[in-house]
């Protein structure tokens, strides 16, 4: 279908464009901006007057819970949530059941996603078989099946010899390794930041050292092996300092932060709010402020939802026994807008963290921008309209989020995937 998106404020961080323009879509691609191409006849017109037209958002961490955890969420429900949130590309962590350690599993997941004809998925393969940290996965075969990187999700490798061999293997082929910095023995048993709040509530603390000790190890092994390293879900000021130091030494290392850690700190646990039980834990206010500054200044490369739907039973348990995680696909845009406004950033720079900057980390070239010839993955949203986050408004099967009841800016009006209107709100 030929689609004209008319009179919208086109905000494209990749091209540093922020101007009112028409966008012309045909054959699943963007064919022109501004003036209509020769012979173009619109079969449908979307009036974007007063709205923002942006590249479809790219989420670096979205658990869709298939295969293995369908009682928490399904591919169908989470794809609908992605469309409602304007998220058109998703990186999928490997901690499914079974883990994404075999080409057949990856192909099945990508096939199922294609049949649903919603968001594009980019599987992140398991670094080791079963995420057990013992035997390396067949990375080359997994890449052929569609994996874009390799990770252990939230399961750290105990044996550093195995981790070093995994990095050597990945470096040989130029594969990027995505690691969440958790030192296994320092993190073990912890469920809140090791500070005053955890002490007052009687919760087992997880120290910042659980992040920094792991980071020291990862960065040193990456330096030795030449592995391309991406640090996922950074949570502390000290961790960011280590990454910056590594960059000054010329290391190829990127990092991201979750929307939760940009807006919340350990004080938000309140009286055992299990929706604030996350991995890594919410850190101190000082850490949160450092993460916000790092993200605003580009020292943190991207922001993700860390979407982890949990069923009601998993969150109704006492804090320490509850399932960690929070839903986030539908909150990625509102929380990005809220962060950018608070940081005093123009919309162009705020959206970059969930479009063009995120695309670079995954290695996507045909999305994350609105250039002629690019895939027509587009989000049209109203930045002035506020939405109240509630159970009955979330499309995700997981309703667990610390932001329930809050009013946040940004309402998605249209989501297009390869030139098809997949959501209208």
Count every helix, treating DSSP H or I runs of 4 or more residues as helices.
Answer: 14
Helical content class: 25-40%
What would the principal axes of the Cα set say about the shape? globular
| Number of DSSP strand runs | 18
Whole-Å distance between the termini? 20 Å
Computed structural class: alpha/beta
Q: Any idea what the radius of gyration is?
A: 21 Å
Largest sheet: 8 strands, mixed
Instruction: Compute the average pLDDT.
Output: 97
Low-confidence stretches: none
Percent of residues in beta strands: 15-25%
Keywords:
8-stranded mixed sheet; 425 residues; alpha/beta
Q: Any overview of this molecule?
A:
The protein is α/β, with parallel strands linked by helices. 31% of the residues lie in helices and 24% in strands. It has 14 helices and 18 strands. The strands form 3 sheets. Strands 1, 2, 3, 4, 5, 16, 17 and 18 form an 8-stranded mixed sheet that branches. The chain has an 8-stranded parallel sheet with strand order 6-7-8-9-10-13-14-15, sandwiched between helices. Helix 2 (103-116) runs parallel beside helix 3 (139-145). The longest helix is centred in the middle third of the chain and has 17 residues, at 209-225. The two termini are 20 Å apart. The model has no long low-confidence stretch (mean pLDDT 97).
